[in-house]
Design goal:
- The protein is α+β, with helices and mostly antiparallel strands.
- It has a single domain, classed as Jelly Rolls.
- The chain contains 5 helices and 8 strands.
- The chain has a 4-stranded antiparallel beta sheet. It has a 4-stranded antiparallel beta sheet with strand order 2-7-4-5, with no helix packed on it.
- α4 crosses α5.
- The protein starts with a helix and ends in a 16-residue tail after the last helix.
- About 20% of the residues are buried.
């Protein structure tokens, strides 16, 4: 089982009581990957959020490096919410250990503790909103500091 202190580092569990974190830690799985191993492939189905406990991963889309993530970071959140294939490929740069929560387990949590479920969903929405904001800022810098003009209906696919 994953220690509560390790889980408290992750923003997804912010605001949860120690006993809620304890209950959630008993629902988490663990996975290990060797250096160079693909954890999640762009376009493949994914129904898990992974929490990096040890190691470092690279996240690429269409062979373009988007970011490197390490201890304390998470990935796979988007696919939990939008039930779409993986948006990017995630590869272990060094040996990696992750904690895993599946979509099924999140639904199980809803039945067991709706307050914990609600906090996790709010935290997830906040984290994804921050990520989207950073991407917007990067995009604006890319096009010379101005916001791109979009026709109505295009924002959802941006």
């Amino acid at each position: 089982m994953i220690e509560n202190a390790a889980l408290q580092r992750y923003s997804l569990f912010g605001g949860l009581l120690p006993e809620q974190i304890q209950a959630i830690s008993s629902l988490l799985g663990q996975e290990s990957y060797a250096a160079g191993e693909i954890i999640q492939k762009e376009g493949d189905p994914n129904d898990k959020i992974r929490f990096i406990l040890e190691g470092r991963v690279s996240v690429t889309k269409a062979s373009l490096l988007l970011i490197e993530l390490g201890e304390g970071d998470t990935f796979g959140e988007m696919e939990i919410l939008d039930v779409m294939p993986s948006a990017a490929t995630v590869r272990a740069e060094v040996p990696v250990a992750v904690a895993v929560i599946s979509n099924r387990t999140i639904r199980q949590l809803y039945k067991l503790d709706t307050q914990a479920f609600a906090l996790i969903m709010m935290n997830l929405a906040r984290d994804l909103s921050r990520r989207l904001r950073r991407m917007d800022e990067l995009r604006c810098r890319e096009v010379g500091g101005t916001s791109p003009v979009m026709a109505p209906g295009q924002a959802a696919s941006f």
